[in-house]
């Protein structure tokens, strides 16, 4: 016997998928932001060897499909290095790395937008390297980067849908399950798409609010 | 475990077949998304508030919903309304529609960057609106947006790997088959990663050259 009708339990399923998608998105965003900024700092201080590795690695990650990266980590690593990776671990590794590669590009251009003369002036005034990074570079770079970062995060939110392919039960996977059970693709995929749309809008709204706050000091206040 | 690429040698023709399918899908989708993008950009920048509103909603929706969800919507949904097309056609349609949303944004900003004086001059010269659009607006807008269009195209190539989820054996799909045949997933996916990266690098070089060629008579160095 087949139960093709929608039940109230489907809402729980959808909510569960939404939770998994959101949790993975938040986790990989935080890891990606930290990792990407670290790479940018490596590049800023021109650390030899490491800098070249980071550049090549980021280029590779940026210019290849996330799906292939996912397969490489999920199917490749266990076969190659005899490491057991669960779908969720593979998803976290891949998405964090991918986000980091894009964050790296944004962070590098944000740091470059500041100008070395400011940094030299700060160093001459007796600030330590860490203080320069903390009080001179970071605040200005953040204000510069927040716009592109918001765009990136909206994009990365959509990229999380790919992890359903390796078996993570996220929102898209739930959509697939519901679709195969109810055979009503239009309703199911419209609901799933709608949920993603709302999440993307929330991320964009959050980014815009944050940008307004970070740029408050440069805003035109009137005469 | 050793990293042995020679194991892939017998499977190269099969992979090349997949790459050709990827190329076909990408070129068709590029043409499709350019058509859709141009029309939508014309609607967004048009004087009619209703049309520009509708076009804006289209762009907003398809930019903010994951491609894989759109793809499943079409793949499972089209047969429901009596349209039976194969996976390749479905993939190209979905790619064109999603790509069209991004393309229209690029072309729109190209159109908006045109100096209004040029349009006024054209109107004063007595050119009709369609003529102005075809002969003046589009050439300028397309020429200035070659580079951003190129990055949309590169994104399209990367996105086309998702078509492997609807049973279409393009490059990623064939690689999946080879990986399960040889049980050497690490080698095959590593090669695939480098292949995609070099392919998109070549495309970006070509786009840079095209941009310089189209803007060769421009005096300011871009």
TrEMBL record, chain A:
<keyword id="KW-1133">Transmembrane helix</keyword>
<dbReference type="Pfam" id="PF00528">
    <property type="entry name" value="BPD_transp_1"/>
</dbReference>
<dbReference type="GO" id="GO:0006865">
    <property type="term" value="P:amino acid transport"/>
</dbReference>
<dbReference type="GO" id="GO:0022857">
    <property type="term" value="F:transmembrane transporter activity"/>
</dbReference>
<dbReference type="GO" id="GO:0043190">
    <property type="term" value="C:ATP-binding cassette (ABC) transporter complex"/>
</dbReference>
<feature type="transmembrane region" description="Helical">
    <location>
        <begin position="66"/>
        <end position="85"/>
    </location>
</feature>
<feature type="transmembrane region" description="Helical">
    <location>
        <begin position="91"/>
        <end position="111"/>
    </location>
</feature>
<feature type="transmembrane region" description="Helical">
    <location>
        <begin position="132"/>
        <end position="154"/>
    </location>
</feature>
<feature type="transmembrane region" description="Helical">
    <location>
        <begin position="20"/>
        <end position="45"/>
    </location>
</feature>
<comment type="similarity">
    <text>Belongs to the binding-protein-dependent transport system permease family. HisMQ subfamily.</text>
</comment>
<comment type="function">
    <text>Part of the binding-protein-dependent transport system for glutamine; probably responsible for the translocation of the substrate across the membrane.</text>
</comment>
<dbReference type="InterPro" id="IPR010065">
    <property type="entry name" value="AA_ABC_transptr_permease_3TM"/>
</dbReference>
<dbReference type="InterPro" id="IPR000515">
    <property type="entry name" value="MetI-like"/>
</dbReference>
<keyword id="KW-1003">Cell membrane</keyword>
<keyword id="KW-0812">Transmembrane</keyword>
<feature type="domain" description="ABC transmembrane type-1">
    <location>
        <begin position="18"/>
        <end position="207"/>
    </location>
</feature>
<keyword id="KW-0472">Membrane</keyword>
<dbReference type="InterPro" id="IPR043429">
    <property type="entry name" value="ArtM/GltK/GlnP/TcyL/YhdX-like"/>
</dbReference>
<keyword id="KW-0813">Transport</keyword>
<keyword id="KW-0029">Amino-acid transport</keyword>
<dbReference type="InterPro" id="IPR035906">
    <property type="entry name" value="MetI-like_sf"/>
</dbReference>
<protein>
    <submittedName>
        <fullName>His/Glu/Gln/Arg/opine family amino acid ABC transporter permease subunit</fullName>
    </submittedName>
</protein>
Automatic annotation (TrEMBL), chain B:
<dbReference type="GO" id="GO:0006865">
    <property type="term" value="P:amino acid transport"/>
</dbReference>
<feature type="transmembrane region" description="Helical">
    <location>
        <begin position="81"/>
        <end position="102"/>
    </location>
</feature>
<dbReference type="Pfam" id="PF00528">
    <property type="entry name" value="BPD_transp_1"/>
</dbReference>
<comment type="similarity">
    <text>Belongs to the binding-protein-dependent transport system permease family. HisMQ subfamily.</text>
</comment>
<dbReference type="InterPro" id="IPR043429">
    <property type="entry name" value="ArtM/GltK/GlnP/TcyL/YhdX-like"/>
</dbReference>
<feature type="transmembrane region" description="Helical">
    <location>
        <begin position="20"/>
        <end position="44"/>
    </location>
</feature>
<protein>
    <submittedName>
        <fullName>Polar amino acid transport system permease protein/putative glutamine transport system permease protein</fullName>
    </submittedName>
</protein>
<keyword id="KW-0472">Membrane</keyword>
<feature type="transmembrane region" description="Helical">
    <location>
        <begin position="188"/>
        <end position="210"/>
    </location>
</feature>
<dbReference type="InterPro" id="IPR010065">
    <property type="entry name" value="AA_ABC_transptr_permease_3TM"/>
</dbReference>
<dbReference type="GO" id="GO:0022857">
    <property type="term" value="F:transmembrane transporter activity"/>
</dbReference>
<keyword id="KW-0813">Transport</keyword>
<dbReference type="InterPro" id="IPR035906">
    <property type="entry name" value="MetI-like_sf"/>
</dbReference>
<keyword id="KW-1003">Cell membrane</keyword>
<keyword id="KW-0029">Amino-acid transport</keyword>
<feature type="transmembrane region" description="Helical">
    <location>
        <begin position="148"/>
        <end position="168"/>
    </location>
</feature>
<feature type="domain" description="ABC transmembrane type-1">
    <location>
        <begin position="19"/>
        <end position="207"/>
    </location>
</feature>
<dbReference type="InterPro" id="IPR000515">
    <property type="entry name" value="MetI-like"/>
</dbReference>
<keyword id="KW-0812">Transmembrane</keyword>
<keyword id="KW-1133">Transmembrane helix</keyword>
<feature type="transmembrane region" description="Helical">
    <location>
        <begin position="56"/>
        <end position="75"/>
    </location>
</feature>
<comment type="function">
    <text>Part of the binding-protein-dependent transport system for glutamine; probably responsible for the translocation of the substrate across the membrane.</text>
</comment>
């Amino acid at each position: 016997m087949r139960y093709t009708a929608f039940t109230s339990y489907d809402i729980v399923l959808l909510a569960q998928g939404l939770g998994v998608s959101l949790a993975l998105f938040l986790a990989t965003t935080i890891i990606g932001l930290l990792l990407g900024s670290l790479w940018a700092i490596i590049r800023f201080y021109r650390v030899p060897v490491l800098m070249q590795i980071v550049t090549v690695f980021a280029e590779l990650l940026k210019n290849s499909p996330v799906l292939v990266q996912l397969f490489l980590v999920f199917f490749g690593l266990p076969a190659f290095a005899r490491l057991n990776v669960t779908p969720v671990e593979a998803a976290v590794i891949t998405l964090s790395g991918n986000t980091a590669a894009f964050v790296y590009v944004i962070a590098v251009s944000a740091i470059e937008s500041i100008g070395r003369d400011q940094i030299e002036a700060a160093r001459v005034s007796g600030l330590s390297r860490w203080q320069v990074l903390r009080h001179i570079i970071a605040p200005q770079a953040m204000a510069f980067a927040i716009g592109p970062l918001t765009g990136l995060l909206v994009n990365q939110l959509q990229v999380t849908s790919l992890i359903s392919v390796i078996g993570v039960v996220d929102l898209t996977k739930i959509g697939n399950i519901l679709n195969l059970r109810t055979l009503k693709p239009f309703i199911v995929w419209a609901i799933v798409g709608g949920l993603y749309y709302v999440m993307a809008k929330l991320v964009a709204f959050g980014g815009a609010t944050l940008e307004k706050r970070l740029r408050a000091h440069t805003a035109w206040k009137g005469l | 475990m050793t990293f042995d690429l020679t194991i892939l040698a017998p499977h190269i023709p099969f992979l090349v077949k997949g790459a050709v399918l990827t190329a076909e899908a990408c070129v068709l989708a590029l043409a499709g998304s350019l058509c859709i993008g141009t029309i939508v950009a014309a609607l967004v920048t048009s004087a009619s508030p209703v049309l520009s509103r509708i076009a804006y909603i289209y762009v907003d929706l398809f930019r903010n919903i994951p491609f894989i969800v759109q793809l499943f919507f079409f793949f499972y949904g089209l047969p429901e309304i009596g349209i039976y097309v194969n996976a390749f056609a479905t993939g190209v349609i979905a790619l064109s529609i999603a790509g069209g949303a991004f393309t229209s944004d690029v072309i729109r900003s190209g159109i908006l960057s045109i100096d209004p004086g040029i349009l006024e001059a054209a109107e004063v010269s007595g050119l009709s609106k369609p003529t102005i659009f075809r002969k003046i607006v589009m050439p300028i807008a397309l020429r200035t947006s070659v580079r951003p269009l190129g990055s949309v195209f590169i994104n399209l190539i990367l996105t086309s790997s998702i078509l492997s989820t609807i049973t279409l054996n393009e490059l990623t799909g064939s690689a999946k088959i080879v990986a399960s045949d040889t049980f050497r997933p690490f080698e095959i996916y590593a090669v695939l990663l480098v292949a995609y990266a070099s392919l998109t690098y070549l495309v970006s070089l070509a786009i840079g050259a095209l941009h310089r060629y189209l803007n060769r008579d421009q005096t300011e160095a871009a």
